[in-house]
Input
Amino acid sequence: MELAEIYAAFRRIAPYTHRTPLLTSRLLDRLLGKRLLLKAEHLQKTGSFKARGALSKALTLKGPKGLLAVSSGNHAQGVAYAAQVLGVKALIVMPEEASPLKKAATRAYGAEVYDRGVTVENRERVAQALLEETGYAFIHPFDDPLVVAGQGTAGLEALAQAARLGVFPEAVLVPVGGGGLIAGVATAVKALSPATLVLGVEPEGADDARQSLERGEIVGLPEAPRTRADGVRTLALGRYTFPILRERVDGILTVSEGAILEAERLLFTRTKQVVEPTGALPLAAVLEHGGGLPQTLALLLSGGNRDFSP
Output
């Protein structure tokens, strides 16, 4: 993955995505003793950064019959939106236990949701069978160069916005699931600001990326991890994303479920932003690891599709 691929993705998706703001909060800075720059991808089309990668891939396809994807929620909405832009059908394979809110939002974009008997463990097999049946084009949630390039545009924007504020981020903190977002952001950041650290954040019970980087090989989880951060319940990093993380990511921080909840609460009470648990991971890392982090931090708030159902 090279910086030029991210710029190309930016040009492709620009007409269909928001340039999300880089938010600041004096209250939050004072409370945590840091200078925080909050990249507001929860305000992106479909409520998360996933629209970037889905569009980056979809807009290169030549006359697809439809789009098919596997997702717990945010990628589902991103692909459904991309299909809407292309004027084709979308079929999304989602686990039965996935957020009802995210399923409803996916259907609202015009997609068909297939969830009967689907689990995190079997969803790829279900999707493969449906691919053969429908002939649709598959858009992987993270393990695709065009998807990674699209996600990397969030990093491009964040650095440009920080520069306009006259601020130099010493580190960028990014949630990690399959690795697509952090692979793209790390590519952009290390090309434009090599001294800036890129740090991934995972829940303690879903620390496959931390284990993988420590061991130098992809480590998979035996089953879907139990965490409120449903956007990072993937079982392993991708074969395409892992080498990028190994080369360009400076470390992985893990956080407790309590810290994730507290980060959500702080974002709502101090900045009035509704951010889902996965999007709150970077702030949770500041809460639990702040003493070992630099002073000026950019936090990638990856999504805002918060499910408030009981």
